[in-house]
Amino acid sequence: MSDVHEAAGWVRAASRVVVLTGAGISTDSGIPDFRGPNGLWTRNPDAEKASTLQHYLADGELRKRAWQNRLDAPLFSARPNASHFAFAALEEREQLLAVVTQNVDGLHQAAGHDPRNVIELHGTVHFSRCWGCNDRRPMEQMLNRVRAGEADPECEICGGVVKSDTILFGQNLVADVIDAAMTAAEHCDVLIAAGSSLSVFPAANVVPRAKSVGAKVIIANGEPTGMDRFADALLLGQLAEILPTLCSLATP
Ligand code: NAD
To answer: Residue 203's closest CA among 51, 42, 19, 7?
Structure first.
């Protein structure tokens, strides 16, 4: 792991680290990723269809299954793991500018990050949103209605279709959120991209954006990513080993 020592030196010297995370950082918390070797879509390509906005809005039966699946989804009971805590320690040492995450699980905040420092590119499962009037409320309120017998609970205000406050395929990302992520990338001295195939855009663009301003780019993942050509250090292996090592070696 000689690369990890060199990379830790960059992190130690940095005061504006940006972390970009993907689903791979949460697999050790029991939440499967999509495209890894054991990913949901790798095992069941049909699951990708269920994640599209067009299908969710048009198909009431699909929504009923989605609400039932939410009731016992590991996303809602998962706890942060050593990788999340390693990044939270960077924030405690005041070295962290932002966490930009593609994840919707809220585990960075649960590990102790100030929610204002976590940029959730793809939203969060912990809130619901009405497609008709934009009403946003804690997901638990909606799940309680499902538990009480409503198979596909509609918006109490406008009667519209309610979904989780995540970005489905076919749905536009929120411009302000993307801007915040790109601004963070432009102001970092080190970018650590961890647990992402870096194949989903515009999230993956954080990597070349950081590189373009001269930041050191560290990519940590279990397999090659779509952005490896931009990496100053490629840390290949299990994140639960790599990230705590990287961040503790980086302690000033
Ligand atoms: P991805 O599924 O495309 O890629 C995850 C990567 O992490 C893979 O390359 C895999 O090999 C690697 N990986 C998985 N576990 C690992 C481990 N323990 N150690 C090292 N590497 C590991 O994920 P993505 O790039 O984030 O894109 C998936 C999309 O799906 C995102 O847009 C996200 O919104 C969504 N998603 C989120 C969650 C979540 O919130 N936890 C879970 C699944 C999917």
So the answer is: 19
Cα 116 to middle of ligand 1, angstroms? 23
Backbone angles phi, psi at 45, to 5 degrees: -60, -25
Domain 1-31+80-122+172-252 has CATH 3.40.50.720: no
The conformation of residue 174, written as its DSSP 8-state character, comes to P
Distance CA 251, CA 161 (A): 48
Q: Kindly tell me if the per-residue pLDDT of 139 is higher than 90.
A: yes
Q: Within a 10 A sphere around the Cβ of 125, how many other Cβ atoms?
A: 18
Which CATH code for domain 34-77+126-166? 3.30.1600.10
For residue 57, give the amino acid letter. Answer: L
Domain parsing of the chain, residue ranges: 1-31+80-122+172-252, 34-77+126-166
- The token pair that represents 14 in the structure block: 């940095």
Token pair listed for 186: 């432009």
Asked if residue 35 has its Cβ within 6 Å of ligand 1, the reply is yes
Confidence at residue 33, expressed as pLDDT on a 0 to 100 scale: 85
Q: Is the CB of 120 under 6 A from ligand 1?
A: no
Strands 136-138 and 123-130: antiparallel
Q: Which tens digits make up the pLDDT trace of 57-66?
A: 999 998 998 8
| Radius of gyration of the chain from its Cα atoms, rounded to whole angstroms | 19
